[in-house]
Amino acid sequence: MLRPDLLIVGAGPAGMSAAIVAARAGLKVVVVDEQPTPGGQIWRGIEANAGTSRGRALGEQYCSGLATVRTFRECGAVYWPSTRVWQVESTLGTYVTGPGGTRVVAPRLVLIATGAQERPAPFRGWTLPGVMTVGAAQILLKNPGSVPSEPVWIAGCGPLALLYAHQLIRMGGVVAGFLDTRPSTPLRETLQLAGRAALRSSRELAKGASWYAELYCRAGRYVPDVVDLQALGTDQLEGVRYRTAAGRVEEIRTSLLLVHEGVLPELHTVRSLGCEIQWDAGQAAYRPVLNEWGECSHPDILIAGDAAGIGGAVAAVHRGRLSALRILQRLGKVAAEPEMTEENCRAALAHALVLRPFLDRVFRPREQVFAPDDDTIVCRCEELRARDLCAALSGSVGSNQLKAFTRAGMGPCQGRQCGLTVAALIAAAEGRHMSEVQPFRVRPPLKPLRLCDLAGLADESRSS
Amino acid sequence: MFRLLEDDWGRVESTVTIEIDGYPVIAQIGETVASTLLRVEASWSRTTPVSGARRAPYCMMGVCFDCLMLVEGEGLVRACQTSVRAGLKVQRQMGPRKVGPSC
Ligand code: FES
């Protein structure tokens, strides 16, 4: 059994940055990541793409990841790619399975840097082949470099939808139309927030505005104020029906629709450990309860990056560093680089988060995301519709009971796709606030596990 | 539903052939089974155990499990988390998984 000082789950911006600080200071660090190469979702495939026309088209922020990935590769941390963490015990015993088989790691501290996932936003027909997330399409852009084979329809709200459209257009793809599901924000509030953000981050703001302008000019159609979507077809997407805030209903023909309604902290591992979470109304998401170092309610676990609350890649880098500094402090070490100080990291983090209140407000998801109509499948795995769940919601039923009654959240995705919607349905039915509703309890194994992987533990225990 | 961009990557020496339900499909080295599947005509990955409806990769990042496919030597796995290799045999998962030897 390996006994490192620190185990880091996730090799994205936060995990890598923390690993670099910790390993250079002399800690024994193990980093486990599900992808075959480091970078997380944001810098996925950066080593292969950097210096190519694709890398250039993906943009400056994407290419900026190469330096971190290179430093990470050389920092001395043990890196296990293509490896899944399927259980972290409260004593920190961690079970992982990868190309090297199943292993147990017993670190002194754990840093969870599992990043974000896209917000599941159910609508009628969203399970049809041909409906995918924008994030999924962006992953395809990075590796293997594929684009929709026909002009594509995008429906969504959030910076990622705009960024993807921008990247796609730069790579020669065509946006047939953009159904903007962003609810309009009162102009005065927008201007106030934008003004405040512009004082410190005008460049970012200008970039966002230019993406919007590009979309406006280059997309075949741009439809604002879309409040409801329906994917049409039986075995495959054939069209989309949408409704605008003004009540106009229209239908378009398409075999591919990309959807996006923002991102959420990926809290599966965190929640399996019973770490305390809270409802963040600004981001309309649950996030872990953390102190300024990323320490959570479990004394030996820290959380950094988007898993700590959505902040983007740059904030993730600095949160990762801050958590690493705290870890060094706790284990009696100091950072190897003199400039790696708490003050510097905090200042950089604050700067990286300047635009966040503006983004959270302007891209707040529309109400319909939390209130799917009766006929909409909420639990993709068990094919349960809102109607089925609401029928089981008599009396005061929590998420876990609802799961037992209906099987919602029991399928292979383990509630990753329906958990938030189920919590929202319960809150609505009982007239409670999201902060008063707990999402499903999460139990290991956190990732699918074969019996032979489990049996591999026998060899592991013999060898130790 | 997708096509490869013709940039500096699409060279023949960087491809392998895999098999999806017995049909040969050309894949780029380093890509996943799911990204390969999304370039074939029938780009769905499985039918559901409950209603038998078709599903296709949805998230590409391992959180929806709609890309579950039977991969030779590995059993039922997320195709979006499985890298291609030459000769890899993949099957669409039809309905519920049958009990049997897989790995
Ligand atoms: S496509 Fe979602 S898990 Fe593979």
Query: How much beta of chain A, percentage-wise?
Result: 15-25%
Largest interface by residue count? A-B, 50 and 47 residues
Low-confidence stretches of chain A: none
CATH architecture of the largest domain in chain A: 3-Layer(bba) Sandwich
Name the shape of chain A in a single word: globular
Helix count of chain B, per DSSP?
1
CATH homologous superfamily designation of the largest domain in chain A: FAD/NAD(P)-binding domain
Strand order of the largest sheet of chain A: 3-2-1-7-21
Our count of helices of chain A gives 16
| End-to-end gap of chain B | 31 Å
Rg over C-alpha atoms of chain A, rounded to the nearest angstrom = 22 Å
Major sheet description of chain A:
5 strands, parallel
Keywords (chain A): Oxidoreductase
Pfam families (chain A): Pyr_redox_2, SO_alpha_A3
GO molecular function, one term (chain A): oxidoreductase activity
Protein name (chain A): D-nopaline dehydrogenase
How would you describe this protein?
Chain B: It comes from Gluconobacter sphaericus NBRC 12467. Chain B: GO terms for molecular function: iron-sulfur cluster binding; oxidoreductase activity. Chain B: InterPro entries: 2Fe-2S-bd_N, 2Fe-2S_ferredoxin-like_sf. Chain B: Pfam families: Fer2_4 (PF13510). The complex is a heterodimer of chains A (464) and B (103). Chain A has 16 helices and 23 strands. Chain A has helices at residues 13-24, 46-49, 53-58, 60-63, 65-74, 134-142, 159-170, 187-218, 268-272, 313-330, 342-352, 356-362, 386-391, 399-406, 419-430, 451-463, and strands spanning 6-9, 29-32, 78-80, 84-88, 94-98, 101-105, 109-112, 116-118, 131-133, 146-148, 152-156, 175-180, 221-223, 226-232, 239-244, 249-253, 257-260, 263-265, 277-280, 285-288, 301-303, 377-379, 384-385. Chain B is 5% helix and 30% strand. Chain B has one helix at residues 33-37; strands at residues 2-4, 15-20, 23-28, 46-47, 54-55, 68-71, 75-78, 89-92. Chain B has a five-stranded mixed sheet with strand order 3-2-8-6-7. The longest helix of chain B is centred in the middle third of the chain and has 5 residues, at 33-37. Strand 10 of chain A pairs antiparallel with strand 1 (2-4) of chain B. The complex binds FE2/S2 (inorganic) cluster. The site of FE2/S2 (inorganic) cluster has 13 residues of chain B, from loops.
